[in-house]
Design brief:
By secondary structure, this protein is an all-alpha fold. It has helices at 5-19, 23-52, 63-73. The chain has three helices and no strands. The longest helix has 30 residues, at 23-52.
Length: 80
């Protein structure tokens, strides 16, 4: 049997070895790492898509809308 400061040190040492890592901290780190890698991956894909994909085509404007726009500007539509 050990007495004095050595006994306290042995008890503390055994308690630390038995406990190991805090499981809550491990779960938090794993979830945080997955979330961070997901966000970084999404950003990387976004940047890659912006560089490689062609720009979106605009919808064609109908003849009615073109007529209205020209009338608003004061230019008469051809044929009228």
């Amino acid at each position: 049997m050990v007495f004095g400061a050595d006994a306290d040190f042995d008890r503390t040492k055994n308690a630390v070895e038995a406990q190991g890592f805090n499981p809550g901290l491990i779960v938090l780190l794993v979830i945080g790492g997955l979330l961070l890698s997901f966000l970084i991956g999404n950003y990387a894909l976004y940047v890659y898509a912006q560089k490689t994909l062609p720009p979106k085509k605009k919808k064609p404007v109908s003849k009615k809308k073109m007529k209205k726009e020209r009338l608003k500007q004061g230019v008469s539509a051809p044929g009228e």
